[in-house]
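We include the pair:
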Amino acid sequence: MSAVRPGHEHEHEYEPRYGFESESQGEPPYDPLTDPVPPGGHGSPWFRTTNIPAADEAQQQSPPATYGQQQEWSGGQYPVHPPEEHGRDWYANEQAAVPAEAAPEPEQVRAPVSDPIVVSDDETVALRTSDTRRAAQTPPGPGRAERRRAAKGRGRRRAAARPVESSEPGRPLSRVEARRAARAAKDSPTVIASRAIGELFITLGVLMLLFVTYQLWWTNVLAGQQADRAADQIQQDWAKGRKPDAFEPGQGFAMMYIPKLDVVVPIAEGIDKQSVLDRGMVGHYGEGQLKTAMPEDKQGNFAVAGHRNTHGEPFRYINRLEPGDPIVVETRDTYYTYEMASILPQTLPSNVSVISPVPEQSGFTKPGRYITLTTCTPEFTSTYRMIVWGKMVEERPRSKGKPDALVA
């Protein structure tokens, strides 16, 4: 630090004493602000008298200049201060201007023993950052023993939740660790059994879903295709002039129309499930003790059967028929028109009297030309039978065109 001292005749910033260009200019007077040790030594606590260079020691042995004595030096003359002023505090004038009672006492900051930051003076306080202040204010954490006990507790809780792993990456498991890992990876018999039962239920559920889809949807698709082929075959047989009595069991010979239900279905000989009913056709009771009359017979009961659900389900909605609704049977030569007369909502499958020439419970009391429709009930079951009866009201040759029931 360089400064202009009071008492100079002119302001001049002088250089340290060891920087003169020539020794002939002489040595400058002692300056307490720049010289580390004053000539002759003194008792100031700010300087040391040991380890003084040889040049300084020689100068200390020379007699000091008296007060007021001038010494020439390049740049001007400087007064020599008496020794009693060597220990003068040059900033004391500024501090003396403040009254002693008004000057605050310096705050002594004493850091705790556990605090890593030791505050000794104002300069150290100024160097403290926000992070170090936060660290000094943070209370000390748990001790080593407490951390160790907490770590052991966490380890015991996690051991049951995850498999055993090696404590060091890349190190193979020990025999004990391997056995523990094997036991943890191995499923218990209860888990294996529950898993097998769950898979079995899932498989059964999938199979049931596929079966229901097949029964309710796919069988109708297949039966519709087969019924269409049977209807085409009937039209070809009519074109060849074949008579109804020449048809074999399972072979179609007529067509049935139910206008109210929008039903058009071929009629085949027999009521066999696989060869007739499951193929989407209506079967004629024409074999054995269940043999019934044909439409062209002058007297008798023309009885047929059909599915109410699945496989084309031609008779699904016959319970909606009302007295007077037309039912038309078309053969090679003639249209036979019947009107719905009565319905029996439920009866046992063993009740064969419903297809007699004069059906019981139908309301008919004398022989005539009747038609009987039979199907299963309730829906999607075959526990009982539903019966619908009708009476012939018109016989019209095909050469005269369709009857009014099919034209309207």
Observations:
- The domain at 222-407 is CATH 2.40.260.10 (Sortase; Chain: A;).
